[in-house]
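Forwarding the complex inputs:
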Amino acid sequence: MESIFSFCFAILITPLLPALIKKVKACYAGQQGPPLLINYYTMAKLFKKGSVYSTSTTFVFRMGPVVGCATSLMMLLFFPMAGIAPLFSFHGDVLILFYLMGLGRFFTILAALDTASPFEGMGAAREAFFSTLAEATVFGILVLFFRITGSLSFAEFFSGSHPISLTGEHGALLILVIVALYIVMLTENSRVPVDDPATHLELTMIHEVMILDHSGPDLALIELGAWFKLLFYAGFLARIIDPFQLQNVWLNGLLFYAVVTFIYITIGTVESITARYKMNMVPKFILTPFILVFFATILTMELIK
Amino acid sequence: MGTMFVSLAVILAGGVAALLLCRQFTLMKLVTIATTTAGCGVGLFYSLSNLLSHAATIEISRNWLHLFTLAFKVDSISLFFLVPIFTIPPLALFYSFHYMGDKAKATRTAVNYFFFAVLVASMALVVTAANIITFALAWEIMSLSSFFLVIFDYQTKANRQAGYIYFIFAQGGAMFLFAAFALLYQHTGSFDFSTFATIPESAKLLVFILAFLCFGSKAGIFPLHLAKIQSGPAAPSHIAAIMSAVMSKMGIYAIFRMYLLLDATTPLIGQIVLVTGIGTGVLGVVYALAKQDLKELLAYSSVENIGIILIGLGIGMVGVSEQSQAMAFFGFAGAFMHVFNHSIFKSLLFMGAGAVSRQAKITNIDQLGGLMKRMPITGRAFLAGSVAISGLPPFSGFIGEFLIYYGAFYGISNHRLPFILAILAIVSLAVIGGLAAACFTKVVGLGFLGEPRTENAAKATEAGSSMTLIMVLLALTSLLIGVLPEPFIRLAFAGINDVPFTVGFDTQAFMGIVRQVSQTVAIFIGLLLLITLFRKILYLKKEIGSGGTWGCGFTQPTVRMQYTGTSYAAEMIDFYRPFVPVKKIYSGLSKIFPGKTTWETEVEDVAEINYQLRLIQPLLKFLHKLRWIQHGKIQLYIAYIVLAIIVLLLLL
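Prediction (whole assembly, two chains):
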């Protein structure tokens, strides 16, 4: 029961949080910013619209948003938001989930290439490149977590006899992981400094240029998928950062979402105070977290006997 | 065992029948397809029923020409490898019904079918051979018959050259094999496989490395993969499918068999296999990404998959030397699972490439495009194969990788070297997966989607029904394995039943996880259908427009402005630069009013360059100095022979 409630709550709150990023950015720029419910309005607007499809496209173009949205939603189904057990979980679920995320990316890229647009091809190439680099870090983190907890499941990472916790015996290593995962989050969700969703020039975009030709409900599904994915990463980070395991479910949830909110605010802050890197700098930026995680894993050789 | 020989006899009879019926083109094809299907059906029934009932090992031996003993032995490993040997060939032959549609080449097609039958029979003999003589005989027949299959289109110079290189690699590899066998014979004095374990520990490593070089060149491990790369694009597609999907697995089988027979205690063997696997996997997929020719790309992708299989085997071997039963079990089982899966989706992809090359007459991705609309069934099947080979659920590729990951995670122990190796294996599997996805989004996205880049691509039509039928069948099988993996995983588990170290490993708990995986896949598909339904409802009674692609304000787009495979891969290739050299040819600007200029890039194989530079050129230089021996005087040649015999008699 709790699990269903937690899942529904996460889905309902998803569009709210990215609006926070916009608000923070507006604050830094000295503007008022859009209302916090802006994304709900956008959804309603897009759902009401029809679509225009390019004559170049095939069924793959229509499949892209559906697969993308479904794979992101899968992450929320299996992730223990707010310390509440997820709807589904088993030993080994992290492997299939990150591969499902790969499937979502596969179809997003194909949908972009289906339009025969040179701009979307460029975005697709970058997306494919950067994600292969980020994948190495993600699996590096999984190795480290397996080393600490002996488990391969999101739910078991944070429960069980050796849970992942900042106050635990390996807390120091987790600081490296937090930095690494934060960078992966920025990469996978196309945020500054890897990608600038607010840029005006198609040539410099990655994710936004790939969805140029989508419109109406299709675009809404893509946006939803992107928000689910961001919430998953923010939630993952929040579970690592948040060291408290309180008995009270409500208090625990409140604390968790406070941390999540804080993460969204930091994303907004990063976007306000840094510019996007030059494209040839991005691979170096994405490889940094891999080194951090690898280093942390090597350290466990002495720390864990 | 008798059943298997009956099935081989039927298959060979089909091959001979093809030769006899070569004047009746259609009849010949039908007869060969029917007999091969019947023979393979019997063989498949034999191997599956024995595999699943965990039948005891059978051994038989026969005296041959009063000189040698031909010995055969069937254990669970042989039986498992027999499954793809008997599954894929009938499908490939059925596919060839429309693919080999040129009646003018009837005789040649008949010869092709004959060698096809010989190849299938010899592969079955390779996995059941139980002594040196039998194995070497079967191995050589396999190499030679596949050589004749490769040079089907011998009128093209490039194909002849590919066949030549294939031949050199096959025979060069055999040289290492004979060296290994000679070493073994020297120690044991027996041809029998079962005596291998008795040779001194110090000799085992050398024997293994020699054999590994031979088997590795057949499988396609990295610096020895050239034969595979050359033969893949040169051979007809149904042959390329068999060679890549089934025959290269004979190399894997032989490596594994040699490892088990030697029963060495040194951990070095496992480490060598694992590191080779990692290198082969990563470099294979990077080169696949770099190549624009569809068939060449698929050949490199086979190299990558051999890498994944070797990673699995390596994990298993390291598990054995680490005394970790879980690691060994899942490593071996994962490798076996991937052997089976790869044989299915790689056949599918090669057949898809064959359909494209037949219908569009081109295989360069930079010249294709828009095929999904023109060849809808081929396109959809190819898409399914692409998802499968990228290791993504809900298709079969994921299942094998899941097992290997599982083994690798269990290998994360406290010993330094195995620990580092396990981490490297996991991370490189992840990187390989990502790059494979990039590679196959390139193939599907640029080759099949978008707008046709050339006239040929625009005129392509759907392939013949026998071709599309097989492709759809293979695509559905791939999906089935991904959604309901349990029986297939049981098959792989049954395959490693006779591996001594993993005997008695309890799989009950893991089967629960497999069921969970298949449940997760079901949830995902359910979710997918739900969202599709939701989307359908949203689009009810809505205005759906259509127009040109948004060109960012540019009003005169042409198809040539589309992104190309070369540009798609450029950044990624650049990242791996020292290992993937790119040759750039630029004519430059010379006059004040420049004329026509050209710019060309070509990705070169680093192994090929080094062979040229460090092996072929010095060798040619040296051999050139010996040219005087070859002078064309027959009487002196006879003198050489006499001299050689005398020297041998005196020495031995």
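The mean pLDDT of chain B is 92.
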